[in-house]
């Protein structure tokens, strides 16, 4: 199958995933950071999913047993959250429920959370998603990050990240262009679009991880990552075309997350395939 034929097939699978997301409204357990909790929940609601921010160890196992997908984000971990992460990851691993790991701040500076990420990898996340600095560090490269923000380009990292496919079906790297490494397809998918204003809105990356989890409940890890990234890229592109100030952009961006449909996916999806 040629790349053109594969692209057409992938886009149809993304549209099917979007349709199933609207129909099924999957329940997504989010263990995320204090900065992102509200925003991630609103993104999931706008996209058609049902968020549940269950992040304490006393309820983690019982809820992970019924959730459709799990999103774990290491942004501002507390001791109880760390316990809930391990319990939830172990539970969904036993149930073969899809889950997404967002290793926020991974690296030598924040050793406590980084050690937890290393433990969580044993439970085989369906998708690992992060910015270029985090993914590079997770792949064993020594990089300097500015807090939890990336200081290197996603273009320079996606080949480094191939080694992480032993831990996960799919690696998603966000940046000026997004790169999705698929073990299933043996390909890299480059997603274009979006806006430079997206990183200026707190928690957009964290919310993207939660949306990948939502899509993971209705499709394969590769299609879930591609669908979520296209959902964000199209919403960001169209929002920026309408308004270029950061506060108003965020409102319009959320509107487009909600109003995205199959016709918009067909018209605006911008991605290309690259051999691994």
Automatic annotation (TrEMBL):
ATP binds at residues 129, 174. Its cofactor is Mg(2+). Keywords: ATP-binding, Kinase, Magnesium, Metal-binding, Nucleotide-binding, Thiamine biosynthesis, Transferase. It catalyses: 5-(2-hydroxyethyl)-4-methylthiazole + ATP = 4-methyl-5-(2-phosphooxyethyl)-thiazole + ADP + H(+). It holds the Pfam family HK. InterPro entries: Hyethyz_kinase, Ribokinase-like. The keyword Nucleotide-binding applies. GO terms for molecular function: hydroxyethylthiazole kinase activity. Substrate binds at residues 53, 203. Its EC number is 2.7.1.50. It comes from the Bacteria. Pathway: Cofactor biosynthesis; thiamine diphosphate biosynthesis; 4-methyl-5-(2-phosphoethyl)-thiazole from 5-(2-hydroxyethyl)-4-methylthiazole: step 1/1. Catalyzes the phosphorylation of the hydroxyl group of 4-methyl-5-beta-hydroxyethylthiazole (THZ). NCBIfam families: PRK09355.1. Belongs to the Thz kinase family. This is Hydroxyethylthiazole kinase.
